[in-house]
Design brief:
Elements: E1 7-10, E2 17-20, H1 30-43, E3 45-48, H2 55-65, E4 89-92, E5 95-96, E6 99-100, E7 103-104, E8 109-112, E9 124-131, E10 139-143, H3 144-149, H4 153-159, E11 163-166, E12 183-186, E13 188-190, E14 197-199, E15 208-209, H5 214-228, E16 234-237, E17 244-248, E18 252-256, E19 266-272
Parallel strand pairs: 2-3, 4-7
Antiparallel strand pairs: 1-2, 3-17, 4-19, 5-6, 8-18, 9-17, 9-19, 10-16, 10-18, 11-12, 11-15, 13-14
The structure holds N-oxalylglycine (OGA) and manganese (II) ion.
């Protein structure tokens, strides 16, 4: 049977595309993987709908894109369920027999990129929806390629050659992370995979511009974060069961909206290993 031709349909927003006519449960031909990779470099967020994947199939698809980061048990405050899969993380609010089956619970997640508090943050993150609420718990993404392009000359001059400190003591809900690590990265960075320049603000809470007086840094970062998350740079994913979202974790920020804490939300998650982030 001939391979179906993959379709890539841009969202029309500043980032994101839906990829159709591909069954991620199958071992995809190299040519299809190359098309996915090309679409990913271009659109930074890809959505694949109506998938039916086992954990093994999800991990196999992830590994076709590159090496996976092992999950740090407890790094997100959650229990590493399915512990025989060290590269898998569960994002969930479900509590069974008094034990959280996953991490990140319920509630809003503030705008952030994943693990920018690591020396080498992941290049990409994947979430696959196993169970999702009828409404709420949407995940929004903002393009940091677009944000950089929209900085004023003055804003660019102020952050050029500067690093932002990403603090690892709190997660995106404001909850403490055990054994925190922190790191700093260039605010104007060159994407180590796509080669394109981007704004890389990392994590806002407790963050600052290295070497700048704190009050000045706070004002500047608030201004940059407000700009970076303006609706014109954003696309929002409303989850359906069977959705898989692959996002470029360096080229985007993301946020989660609130949802009914009594509704079940379970997503499987993996991270693709990054490379050090050079200055642009
Ligand atoms: C994450 C994350 C968003 C969500 O897994 O890194 O930010 O919608 N999740 O749960
Ligand atoms: Mn995240």
């Amino acid at each position: 049977m001939p391979e179906p031709v993959l379709e890539v349909i841009p969202t029309g927003a500043a980032l994101g595309a839906e990829v159709r006519r591909v069954d991620l449960a199958r071992e995809l031909p190299d040519a299809v993987m190359a098309s996915i990779r090309q679409a990913f470099d271009r659109h930074a967020v890809l959505r694949f709908r109506d998938q039916r994947l086992t954990v093994e199939q999800l991990l196999a698809f992830g590994r076709r894109l590159g090496p996976l980061d092992p999950t740090e048990p407890g790094a997100y405050g959650g229990r590493h369920d399915l512990a025989r899969y060290p590269d898998l993380m569960i994002v969930s609010n479900v509590v069974e027999d008094g034990v959280a089956v996953g991490a990140l619970g319920d509630g809003e997640l503030k705008w952030h990129s994943d693990m920018s508090n690591w020396r080498v943050p992941p290049w990409a993150t994947m979430l696959y929806a196993v169970e999702v609420p009828e409404q709420g718990g949407d995940t929004s993404f903002a393009s940091m390629y677009a944000a950089l392009a929209e900085l004023t000359t003055a804003q660019r001059a102020r952050i050029s050659g500067r690093n932002a400190w990403s603090d690892g003591t709190l997660d995106a809900r404001g909850k403490p992370i055990p054994n925190p690590v922190s790191a700093e990265h260039p605010l104007i960075a060159r994407h180590p995979f796509s080669g394109r320049d981007l704004l890389y603000p990392g994590r806002r809470w407790n963050g600052y511009v290295v070497g700048m007086p704190r009050a000045e840094s706070n004002v500047l970062l608030d201004e940059l974060w407000a700009l970076a998350t303006e609706p014109r740079f954003v696309w929002t994913q409303s989850w359906r069961r069977g959705d898989l979202i692959l996002w470029d974790n360096l080229a985007t920020l993301h946020q989660r909206s609130t949802f009914d804490p009594h509704a079940r939300r379970v997503l499987w998650r993996l991270q693709l290993t990054g490379r050090p982030i050079p200055e642009a």
